[in-house]
Amino acid sequence: xxxxASFANIFTISIAFASIFVVVILSKSSPAPLSLSSVSPxxxxxxxxxxxxxxxxxxxxxxxxxxxxxxxxxxTAALRRGIVACSEVDLIREVGKDSYETTLKExxxxxxxxxxxxxxxxxxxxxxPYLEELARDYSGSLEIVKVNCAxxxxxxxxxxxxxxxxxxMFYKNEKNIAxxxxxxxxxxxxxxxxxxx
Length: 197
Hints:
Blueprint: H1 2-29, E1 35-36, E2 44-46, H2 53-56, H3 59-62, E3 65-67, H4 72-80, E4 93-94, H5 100-107, E5 111-117, H6 122-137, E6 142-148, H7 154-160, E7 167-172, E8 175-181, H8 185-195
């Protein structure tokens, strides 16, 4: 009887460590960052509901939920790093090689700022929220559009001589009146202030 009891204890401990091991392995292979928060039960494992969790885990961990979706602090930090979240209104339109000339023609004598960027460009991501702010502040007199320099737009980008990212080109009446290379907020703001009514 005594051997059976010690075997049962060893078996119970082994099961507890195996369940912890599975949680750790799942956290290593999850595509999103692992966080401790309360999220939807469909994507989480509640440690308190496992049969042996109360015996071997600290009580403070017994009520937590492991999740593969990021916590709110992770989402906030992502926004600070310049990762663009979906907004209700797109202030800046995406244009490509087919719609580039048409966009400039439709703008007429309104100032147009063209943002040349790529998805992997850090400074491009960092300045994007500032561009949205400019689009809001100068909504009647400035139109901001963006061109992704990768893929099908490479021919257009080479034609225009874009070599530095981000590059900003200003147009009025379909003519390029200025170019700013690099994420220079003050240069953008000053030029817009001088050339808008």
